[in-house]
Amino acid sequence: MTDNKKLRRQNGMVVGVCGGLGAFFGISPWWFRLLFLILLIPGGLPGLLPYLILWIVVPRKR
Questions:
Q1: CA 19, CA 31: separation in Å to the nearest integer?
Q2: Is residue 5 part of a domain?
Q3: N or C, where is the chain less crowded by C-beta within 10 Å?
Q4: Helix (H, G, I), strand (E, B) or coil at 25
Q5: Residues 6+ apart with CB under 8 A from 7
């Protein structure tokens, strides 16, 4: 059986990056939000840069 799971942004709180990651990996988007929040603490760039890259690269769910 093939699993055709694709990474797509979901309708979410900001732009859907965490919702898409949660759906792709099968866990709650809350954990990804917490991860990005923790990465924002030491100056912002470690959390903001990957989020922005994912926002640009990952297509929106249709």
A1: 10
A2: no
A3: N
A4: helix
A5: 20, 21, 24, 58
Give a yes or no: residue 62 inside a domain: no
Question: pLDDT tens for residues 16-51?
Answer: 899 999 999 999 999 999 999 998 888 878 888 888
The domain total for the chain is 1
- Contacts for 22-26: CB closer than 8 Å, 24+ residues apart: none
User: DSSP H helical segments within 1-62, as ranges?
Assistant: 17-25, 29-40, 45-57
Residue 50 buriedness (CB in 10 A; 0-12 / 13-18 / 19+) = middle
Residue ranges making up the domain that contains 29: 18-57
